[in-house]
Amino acid sequence: MSSSAPYTPAEPFEFPARHSWPPFFSAQPTLQSRQAQLSRWSTLIQRYCRHYRLYNLTLVDALDTPLFHNATLKKRLSLADAKAIIEHMASAAGDNRAEWVSSEKSAAWIWWRKPEEWADLIAGWVEETGQKGVVLTLYELVEGEATMNQEFYGMDTRILRRALDTLVKKGKAQVFGTEDQQGVKFF
């Protein structure tokens, strides 16, 4: 993660009504119902992560959060079901909205914005603020005063690098410097 403190939104996350429906926490038996359930979980996970600006989930830890555990219902997803949902999210059927961090499949990136979408957002900010041709440190992009009101403020620097790599491949940016002092110039 970046060096900033965890993001705390002003308002608590509002769960959809289906999160209070006991069958939502159990794998559905028919293929059509299961596909719909996986899609709904994917949307919920993306919305939850976006609200709290979470970029990855460690599944064992996430099982104890309100996302996967409805204390009122006394229902929680099993680790196997959580992995199945993330596996769906990591597939083409799940729009590649997740990516396993390692082969153990214990943690995953959650792409509530894919790196390409982050790249477009950052490039738009660069254009709007006249930052083309200016060298910015990666720290300035995700921790600087100029970006405090941007959605990418506080972004995990590993995600920032993936987004910037997208811009580099398009010839819209150049990243340079050492690991702890990297800068980027936008074209």
Automatic annotation (TrEMBL):
Task: Give the GO biological process terms.
Answer: macroautophagy; protein transport to vacuole involved in ubiquitin-dependent protein catabolic process via the multivesicular body sorting pathway
Query: Any idea where this protein resides?
Result: Cytoplasm
Q: In which broad location class does this protein mainly occur, judging by the first location in its UniProt entry? A: cytoplasm
Q: Which Pfam families match?
A: ESCRT-II (PF05871)
Recorded superkingdom: Eukaryota
Q: Which InterPro entries match?
A: ESCRT-II_cplx_Vps25-sub, ESCRT-II_cplx_Vps25-sub_N, WH-like_DNA-bd_sf, WH_DNA-bd_sf
Annotated GO MF terms: protein homodimerization activity; structural molecule activity
Supply the alphabetized keyword list: Cytoplasm, Protein transport, Transport
Gene Ontology CC: one annotated term: ESCRT II complex
Task: Report the family membership.
Answer: Belongs to the VPS25 family.
Which PANTHER family does this chain map to? VACUOLAR PROTEIN SORTING-ASSOCIATED PROTEIN VPS25, VACUOLAR PROTEIN-SORTING-ASSOCIATED PROTEIN 25
> This chain belongs to which protein, by name?
Vacuolar protein-sorting-associated protein 25
Q: What species was this sequence derived from?
A: Cyphellophora europaea (strain CBS 101466)
